Amino acid sequence: MSERIELTAPLDGDFGAVVRLIVGGISARVDLGFEEMDDLQLAIERLHAEAGGQERLTLDFDLSPGRVRVRLGPLLERGLADALQRGPVAGALTLKGVLDTLVDSYGVEEAADGRLFIRIVKLVNA
Amino acid sequence: MDRELLRRLHEEGDATARERLVARHLPLVRSLARRYAGRGEALEDIEQVGAIGLLKAIDRFELGRGVSLATFATPTVVGEIKRHFRDKGWAIRVPRALQELNARMSAGIDRLTSRLGRSPTVAEIALELKSTPEEVLEALEVGTAYTTLSLSGGPGGEEEADPLESLGEEDEEFARSEDRAALAPAMSRLPARERDILRMRFEEGLPQTQIAERVGLSQMHVSRLIRKALVAMRDDLA
Prior knowledge:
heterodimer; A: alpha+beta; five-stranded antiparallel sheet; 4 helices; 37% helix; globular; B: mainly alpha; 70% helix
C-alpha cells in the first residue's frame, strides 16, 4: 500500500533539523537501514542547501513497500536542475556525483505549467 | 625512559623521540578522554583533542622539572578536552538522557552492523539500545546538530577555510550553477582525512561501513564527517 506525506518547509537553516527528523521518521516506517536513511537525509539536505535562493520548498514523499520517492520543488530557478543534468567534471565532486552515490535514481520533472521539480528515489536494501 | 626521550627531543631535536613519547602516553589520553564520554561527542574525537594536549605538554616540558611527564601532561590534556567542550558545546539544552543515548548509539550501530551483516534499521537500533525509534531519531539528530554547530569554528580555528577568491563580474546565477557542478576547489581545503573519506564514498562508492573499517572509525563518525565536509565545502563556496 502506498502512502503520501507532503511537507512544505522554510529553507532557513533552523528548520533543517526538523526536515531531517521527519525524513528519519519516514525512513524508519519503510525500514530503510541506518546508512540508507542517512543517505536520503543527506541527499535532501544537499538539495535544500543548493535551492537556498528561494524561501521554501515542498517535499512530497511517496512511500511504498521497499522504497521512498521524494519530489522536491517547485524550483524558482533552473540552475539546480541544470547542475543535475551536466556531465561529470574530471577530478571534481559534483552535486550530480553526490546524488549518484546517495540515491538509487533521480531526475528533473517539468510540470505542464513549466514548474520544475527534482525527484529522488531510495530503495530498501538496494 | 621518558626523561631520556625528552632529553633527545629537547636537546637534540629528535622527532622520533616525540613520536615514541606520544605512543607511550596515548593510553593516558584515552583514559582521560573516557571520563568525558557520554556527553554527545564521539570518543574518537575526544581522544584526538586530548592527543593535541599531550603534544603540547611534551613540547613544553622542561627537563629540570621534578615531575613525571604523565603528571605534567594530565592537566594539559584535560584542559584541552575541556576547552574543546566549551568552544564547541551544545547550542541548545539537550536532555542528558538523549546525549547519553547518542553516545551509546555509535557502538550499538557498529555491533548490529557486524551481527546482521547490513546496516540496521532504526527499529533494530532502538531494540538494541532498549529505546524507542523516536528516541533513536532524536538522539541521532542531537549528534548531527552538535557536529554542524562545531563547524562554525572561531577565527583562526583549524577548521576555518580560506575564503574563495571573488567571483568578479560573473553573472550570479551562472556562478551558482557552476558552483553546484563542482565543489572541487573547496574540497582541497578540507582536512586530509575528510578528503579521503569523501573520495572513498563518492569516487570509489564505498559504503560507510567499509570506510569506517578502513579508517578505523565508527560508521556514525564517518557519517558525521561526510555531512560536515559537504557542509563545509558548501559554506566555503557561499
